[in-house]
Amino acid sequence: MIQGAINKARQRPLLIDSVYSKKHNENLAKIKATKAFVEILKDQNLNPRDHLTEEQVELLAEAEYIDKRKKELGKA
What we know:
This protein has 76 residues and is mostly helical. The chain is built from 4 helices and no strands.
């Protein structure tokens, strides 16, 4: 019974995933677009920090935080 509950809990998304998937879908889309933009800039041998807006820099910091938390929680 306890093992069944543990297995069921492991199948649920992390709380951080739930919060960001429900409340911040728009931010996640912006994060993906910003990451793609950074890759384009890198492909053109340009420094992304010279071409990003303040909002984009904040989005990348948020993405880094999310990735770090997922790694800490063993979900990355």
